[in-house]
Design a protein that fits this description.
A: about 325 residues; 12 helices; about 75% helix; B: MetI-like fold; about 65% helix; about 0% strand
Amino acid sequence: MAKYLASRGLQAVLVLLGTFTLAFVLLSVLPSDALSIKLSGAGEAALSPDEVAALRAEHGYDDPLLQQYLRQLGGLLGGDLGTSLHTGSPVLSMLGSALPHTAQLAGLALLFGVTAGLLLGSVAAHAGNRWVRETLLTLPPLGISFPTFAVGLVLIQVVAFQWRALPSGGTDGFQNLVLPAITLALPVTATVAQVFHRGLREVLAQGYVDTAVAKGAGRLRLHLAHATRNASGPTLTATAVVVGNLLGGAVVTETVFSREGIGRLTADAVTRQDLPVVQGVVLLSALVFVVVNLLVDLAYPLLDRRVTLTEAPR
Amino acid sequence: MTTTETVAAGVALPGAAPATGPGRHPARRRPGPGVLLAFAVLALAVLAAFAPGLLTTHSPTSDDVLNKLQPPSGAHWFGTDQLGRDVFARVVHGAGLSLRAPLIAVGIAFGVGSLIGLVSGFVGGLVDTVLMRLVDILLAVPSLLLSLAIVAALGFGITHVAIAVGIASVASFARITRAEALRVRAEPFVEAATVLGVRRPAVLARHVLPHAIGPALVLSTLEFGTAILSVSALSFLGYGEPPPTPEWGKIVSEGRDYLATAWWVALLPSLVIAATVLATNRVSRWLDTGGTTR
C-alpha cells in the first residue's frame, strides 16, 4: 500500500511538472512573451524602446529560456506562481480568493449532477414501460448537445425573469448558487446517467443476477445490493473526469451568471492576455485532476473488492 | 494508472461502443427517421455555410435601428437584434465560420492525434512512453481550459480558436489510435510484410495505418459536435472575430444583454447550435454502430 501510494504520488508530481512545462512552453515560448503582449496593449504604446528594454530586463524576459524556466520552477516550488500583469498582485492569492466561490459552485453542481444522473440511469434501467425507458434515454444526449451558455441563459430567462423565483446573477448566498449549479450540473448528469445506465444493464444481464432472482431476491434488493454496487465503479471513474471538466465549465457558467470565481478570473485573464494568471489556472486544474484521480483510485477497492491496489504499471 | 486509462478512453467518447474495425460490416441497416432528420439538419447547416444567400435575403450586418428588437415574424423569422439586424440572417451567415472552425479543429486533432497514436503504438519502447506521458499531461487539463490557455498565447480570432480547440482534443485521438496500432501490429500480415523486407515506415503507412485509422475516423464525427460546442463557447466568451462578423457564439453573447426584453436574440441562435450538435452526435452514433444491425 505504501509502495503504491509512493508510486502514485511520484506519478502525480510528474504530471504536475509536465503540465507546468507545457504551460511554460505554450505561454512563454509561443509567439511572444507575456510582457510584450502587455506592452502591445492600448495605453502603454507610449513607452520608448529604451523603457521597453528596461522593463524586459527587469522582468527577466531577456534571460535565456532555460534560466526563465528554472526561475519560474523554483518560484513554483516556493509557492510563488508569479504576479498578474494586470493587477500586479500575486497569482496565488488571486486564485486563493476566487477558489472558495468556485468550490461551492462545483460542489453543488456535482451533488445535483450525480444525484440526478444516478436517478435517471437507474429509473431508465428498471422502468417496466418501454416508452418511459426510451424517453429517459434520449435525455442525456440532448443534455450534452446544449451549449452551457445556452442552458444558463434559458434558466435566467425563465426562472429569473419570468417566474422571478431566483436571482439572475451575483456571487453571494445560496439563492445565487442554485441556477449556476444546475447549469454546470447538466453535463455531469448526462455523463453519469449514461455510464451508470450502461453499467446497470451489463450487471443485470449477468448470470448471478438470475441466480439472485431465482433465490427470491426482490426488485429493490436486486437493484441496491447487486446492480448498483457493481455498476458504481465505472460511474465513479467517469465522475472523476467530469470533476475536472467542471473547472472548464465554470468559465462559461460564471461569466453567464456574473459570479466571481476561478472561471471568471480565467475569462478575464484570457481577455487581457494576463498569461501568468492563465498559467496558474492551468496548474490548478492539473492539481485538481491529479488529486481527484488519486482519490478515485483509492476508493475503487472499497466499491469492488476484486480490485486490489498494486504498484501502477510503468 | 489503470483506472485513469479506462476513464480517458471511456468518457472522452460518451456512448461510443467498441468501434467496429474495417471489413467487419454486416448488412447495413436503413437509417431511421431520427437519423434522416439529423442528416437533414446537417444538410441545412452545410447549405447555410456554403450558400447563405439561398436561405435568407436579409443582410447579416446592415443596421436598421427603427426595427430594433422586433419579435420573430414572417419578415424576420428569428426577430431582430439591438441594431435592427435580422437574427436569422446572422445565424445563416455565421454558419460558415462557426462550422469551418470546428472542422479545422477536428482536422488538427485527427491529424496530430492519430500520428502520435500510430507512431506510439507501432514503434513502442521509449518513444511510446514519452509520447503517452505527453498525452497524459494534455488529459490532465480540462480541454476548455487548455484551449483558453492556447488562445491566450496565440491571440484572438476564429482561426486561433480553431487551432486551440484542435490541440485540446489531440489526446483522445492519440489514445484510440495507439490502441488500434497495438492491435494491428500483432496481426500476421504486418509480420509477413516485415519478414518480406518491407521497410518500417512503409509498413506503418501501407499496412498499419489503413487498418488502425477506423476508430479515429468515427471519433472525428463525434468530436465534431464537441468542437462546435467548444468553438461556440470561446466565441461566446469573446475570443473570436471582432464585430460585426457573425459567429454563433458571439450572436448569443450579443443578445445576452437583451434577454429580459428580447429573448429571441440569444435563445434562437442557441437552439440552432444545439440542433446542429444534436444532429452531428446522432449521425456519429449511427456511424459508430456501423449502421449495422446489432
